[in-house]
Specification:
mainly alpha; 0% strand; 70% helix; 2 helices
């Protein structure tokens, strides 16, 4: 038995109003709540010279950025 998996069936490229609203709420949360917390954490860690915490913080920050980029893509549709 191989590891081959047939490709998933094609999905619609369109987004529903409910999907847009969900993305908007997620974007607002990330931009107004999560992003300031992560930014503050990065500033505090950098001020103390503690680079070991930077890895965890950068992982959180990258997840925020990915979702914000995804929202930007859907916003322009």
């Amino acid at each position: 038995m191989g590891r081959y998996r047939p490709p998933a069936p094609a999905k619609s490229k369109y987004i529903t109003v409910a999907g847009k609203d969900r993305l908007q709420k997620e974007h607002d949360y990330l931009w107004k709540v999560k992003r300031p917390k992560v930014t503050r954490s990065v500033q505090e860690a950098a001020a103390q010279g503690d680079r070991s915490e930077m890895l965890n913080i950068s992982m959180e920050k990258s997840s925020c950025v990915k979702l914000i980029i995804a929202y930007g893509i859907y916003k322009n549709v």
